[in-house]
Design goal:
By secondary structure, the chain is mainly α. The protein folds into two domains: 52 residues, Homeodomain-like (Arc Repressor Mutant, subunit A, Orthogonal Bundle); 134 residues, Orthogonal Bundle (Tetracycline Repressor, domain 2), CATH 1.10.357. Helix content is 82%, strand content 0%. Helix 8 packs antiparallel against helix 9. The longest helix has 30 residues. The radius of gyration is 19 Å and the shape is globular. It starts with a helix and ends with a helix. Pfam families: TetR_N. Keywords: DNA-binding, Transcription, Transcription regulation.
């Protein structure tokens, strides 16, 4: 059972993440101060430092929360597609939707790549993208649409790397939809090449 204190602590953390998300997207990471974030969240600086050692840790939490929201949407799409359609195309399009259509999400990704180290970004991949892609590939394998002899861990790592490269390209583009349209057929062809004969 969650105590009142734990519930309040989670609400404070959520408020800080929401305020950080808004400020980083609108003003940018470098221009956003901890003082402004705590003012927006309506909490004390002490509360901020209780939850996050510094602004960079908040950025990691903000990006992680964005990944979680995207993951929920992708999982819902995959569940629907596994029953009625093209699982590969549906999952790929769902994975790229936020990068194409959500300008704030693109800004957060751009800032994260400029602030977080490669190791920190890899940790986010390990926590969010690897399990998601692994579960999608498992579903393809279950449906007989993925070669059983392929090493699951290697296949997952390679697909995640391709998706991350695509997201970086789409994020950096002035026309994200057109840039994704260039990558989409190549990605689909590659992933479908992993299918059984």
């Amino acid at each position: 059972m969650v105590t009142l204190r734990e519930e309040h602590a989670q609400q404070t953390r959520d408020a800080l993440i929401a305020a950080g998300t808004e400020r980083f997207a609108t003003d940018g990471y470098a221009s956003t101060s901890v003082a402004r974030i705590v003012e927006d969240a309506r909490v004390s600086k002490g509360a901020f430092y209780h939850h996050f050692p510094d602004k960079k840790a908040l950025l990691k939490a903000v990006v992680s929360a964005a990944c979680e929201r995207s993951e929920v949407m992708i999982r819902q799409t995959v569940e629907s597609a596994s029953e009625s359609g093209d699982l590969v195309a549906s999952a790929l399009d769902a994975a790229m939707e936020a990068v194409q259509n959500d300008e704030d999400y693109r800004k957060l990704r751009q800032q994260a790549s400029g602030v977080l180290s490669e190791q920190e970004r890899r940790e986010l991949d390990d926590r969010h993208r690897l399990p998601l892609v692994s579960s999608i590939l498992d579903e393809l394998r279950r449906q007989g649409e993925l070669r059983a002899e392929l090493d699951a861990q290697a296949t997952t790592a390679l697909v995640v790397a391709l998706l991350e490269t695509t997201k970086e390209e789409v994020t950096a583009s002035d026309d994200p939809t057109a840039r994704y349209a260039q990558f989409r057929p190549v990605l689909l062809r590659f992933i479908r090449s992993l299918a059984g004969d």
